[in-house]
């Protein structure tokens, strides 16, 4: 719920609402006020509070210059985090609060950073350098909301709108392009016409922005509740950062299982899948290899044999380029590589896949497959969902019964084979893996005697009582 109707008098125009400023932030604001300066909560925390969400962090802006701030905060734990840009951090109750002097950004020559920043004593000037109206509001617990650009109204109407001239604002800092679509996806907002046009027209400027900063925004976008609409409406921006996605856009799958183009299907999977960044990435990439692997048979039917391998390769390239960490890269590519496996309600398959992927990745794969089948032709959804459910239950059963699916679970180990006279080295692993396969195939019980017996018979090892081949230990 938005709060907008309390009247508060201040030298700044605008509305006010009862925002619950945390005690520590209010203390810092009051302390600056007591020192004779202006101070306000600003930006994301004001936006989120007005939306009834809990802000991630509370940023404060002030008319005090950095040295004035230091004096005013004497005795408090102050860290000079960005003193050149006017930012100090004060840690209270283990929470960091960033306090920044009102600023006017100088000229942007590289499309990323202002050449220099100038301090100002004018709050409105500080708010005017901020990217979107909903991010350009300030709040003081005593005097209320300062909202010179209609941020509250846009918040109420669900609109992302640039502060000032949209093309110029993206020209100054192209990261704002990603931030704009990210906020639209996170908040489920529309983007105002001129801002939307400028976002798209300016998209090539994104090439100047570092991969790390793009990645952070992309993750937040994918996890947004409105991601599907934003990815659909702004796909050309997606193709700017991930050109490999473009061939999916209009590809008709010519196949009875699918009612959507590859891109629309992908967007549905992103929408359906559970909300973690890893799963959203699995969804984004799972079919990205389809365009290059498509074949059409004489009957006009489209096929995508081994597309999962192409998807894996492309995902790996893109994730590396966007500097995702190795763990995410490895997890996402493994899940994508295996997403064409057809699950059956079989303990044997559950054991084998647990062995191959491990529990964590197998559970991610199950989530991907659920979202995948829910985004295909609905006539097949029910039966496929129930098969995945049955498989998932087998996985639970195998895990609960400690049914054997890894060498660790096998009732014998390398030591036992050495005792039977097996040669130290790779042979041991080979024998153990063969025995494990037999157990997983239900050809052999996971029991010590049976395993030793098979090892002796199949691999020509000796029993305990026989000569151990001269080994002394
Ligand atoms: P989040 O919820 O992701 O933290 P946020 O709006 O708080 O969203 P921050 O990156 O923490 O984003 O930035 C704090 C504030 O600084 C923003 O609300 C906005 O006013 C301003 N800001 C941040 N990045 C930019 C930018 N690239 N251009 C202009 N203003 C920006
Ligand atoms: Mg923030």
Explain what the structure shows.
By secondary structure, this protein is of the alpha+beta class. It has 4 domains: 23-157, Beta Polymerase, domain 2; 162-241, Hydrophobic Seed Protein (Orthogonal Bundle); 248-400, no CATH class; 407-459, Serum Albumin, Chain A, Domain 1, CATH 1.10.246. 48% of the residues lie in helices and 10% in strands. The chain has helices at residues 23-34, 44-50, 66-72, 123-128, 151-157, 166-172, 175-187, 193-201, 211-222, 227-233, 235-241, 262-272, 277-285, 290-293, 307-321, 326-337, 347-374, 378-400, 414-419, 426-440, 448-459, and strands spanning 39-42, 59-62, 78-82, 87-92, 95-101, 103-105, 117-119, 138-140, 144-146, 159-160, 190-191, 295-296, 302-303. The protein has a 7-stranded mixed β-sheet. Helix 7 packs across helix 10, helix 12 (262-272) crosses helix 17 and helix 17 packs antiparallel against helix 18 (378-400). The chain is elongated, with a radius of gyration of 30 Å. The termini are far apart. 40% of the residues are buried.
Which segments are poorly predicted (pLDDT under 50) over 5 or more consecutive residues? Answer: 1-10, 12-16, 465-473
The fraction of residues assigned to DSSP E strands is 5-15%
Structural class: alpha+beta
- Tell me the radius of gyration: 30 Å
The coarse overall form would be elongated
Integer tally of domains: 4
Average pLDDT level: 90
Report helical residue fraction: 40-55%
Bound molecules: adenosine-5'-triphosphate, magnesium ion
Largest beta-sheet details: 7 strands, mixed
The total of helices stands at 21
Order of strands across the main sheet: 3-4-5-2-1-8-9
Distance between the termini: 75 Å
Q: What is the strand tally?
A: 13
């Amino acid at each position: 719920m938005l709060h907008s109707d309390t009247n508060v008098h201040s030298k700044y125009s605008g509305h006010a609402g009862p925002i619950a400023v945390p005690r520590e932030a209010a203390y810092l604001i009051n302390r600056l006020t007591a020192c004779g300066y202006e101070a306000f909560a600003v930006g994301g925390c004001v936006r989120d509070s007005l939306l009834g969400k809990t802000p991630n962090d509370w940023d404060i802006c002030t008319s005090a210059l950095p040295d004035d701030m230091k004096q005013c905060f004497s005795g408090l734990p102050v860290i000079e985090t960005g003193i050149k840009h006017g930012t100090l951090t004060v840690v209270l109750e283990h929470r960091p609060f960033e306090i920044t002097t009102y600023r006017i950004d100088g000229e942007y020559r590289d499309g990323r950073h202002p050449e220099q920043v100038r301090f100002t004593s004018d709050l409105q000037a500080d708010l005017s350098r901020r990217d979107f109206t909903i991010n350009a509001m300030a709040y003081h617990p005593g005097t209320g909301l300062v909202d010179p650009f209609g941020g509250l109204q846009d918040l109420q109407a669900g609109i992302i709108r640039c502060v000032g001239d949209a093309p110029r604002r993206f020209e100054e800092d192209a990261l704002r392009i990603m931030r704009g679509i990210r906020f639209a996806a996170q908040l489920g907002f529309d983007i105002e016409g001129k801002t939307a046009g400028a976002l798209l027209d300016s998209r090539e400027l994104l090439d100047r922005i570092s991969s790390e900063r793009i990645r952070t925004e992309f993750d937040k976008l994918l996890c947004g509740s409105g991601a599907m609409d934003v990815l659909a409406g702004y796909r050309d921006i997606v193709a700017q950062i991930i050109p490999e996605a473009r061939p999916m856009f209009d590809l008709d799958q010519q196949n009875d299982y699918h009612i959507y183009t590859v891109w629309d299907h992908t967007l549905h999977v992103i929408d359906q899948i559970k909300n973690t960044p890893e799963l959203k990435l699995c969804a984004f990439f799972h079919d990205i290899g389809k365009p290059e692997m498509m074949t059409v048979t004489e009957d006009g039917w489209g096929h995508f044999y081994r597309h999962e391998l192409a998807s894996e390769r492309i995902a790996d390239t893109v994730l590396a380029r966007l500097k995702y960490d190795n763990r995410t890269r490895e997890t996402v590519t493994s899940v994508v590589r295996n997403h064409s496996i057809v699950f059956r309600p079989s303990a044997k398959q559950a054991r084998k896949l647990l062995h191959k992927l491990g529990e964590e990745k197998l559970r991610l794969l199950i989530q991907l497959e659920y979202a995948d089948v829910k985004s295909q032709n609905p006539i097949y959804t029910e039966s496929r969902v129930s098969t995945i459910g049955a498989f998932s239950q087998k996985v639970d059963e195998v895990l609960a019964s400690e049914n054997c699916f890894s060498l660790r679970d096998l009732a014998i180990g390398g030591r036992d084979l050495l005792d039977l006279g097996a040669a130290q080295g790779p042979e041991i692993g080979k024998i153990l893996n063969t025995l494990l396969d037999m157990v997983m195939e239900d050809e052999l019980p996971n029991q010590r005697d049976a395993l030793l017996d098979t090892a002796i018979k199949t691999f020509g090892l000796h029993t305990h009582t026989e000569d151990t081949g001269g080994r002394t230990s």
